[in-house]
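1st attempt posting a full record on here, be nice pls
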Amino acid sequence: MTNHTEAAPSCCSTSAVDPATLGNGRENLLTRGSDDDLTTCPVMVGTPVSKKAAEAVGLFRDHEGERYYFCCAGCGPAFDSDPATYAAAMA
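the predicted structure (as tokens):
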């Protein structure tokens, strides 16, 4: 018996064939938005996120008076696990 396990994809896989959508057909928040609308995800450091698009679908958290925007649904729970650490990385 072989024990083959695949590595779990990251919560923010950007390897979809069509860069306008994620692999499951959802809109890609990584590339949508103007320059003044863009920020980066505190969990997937350096990943650009449209503030408007993320806010429209609830991909954000408020922590100590600041709003943090996420590139995918998996980043919110990760941020919730240690918001101070992720917030500090954005400073």
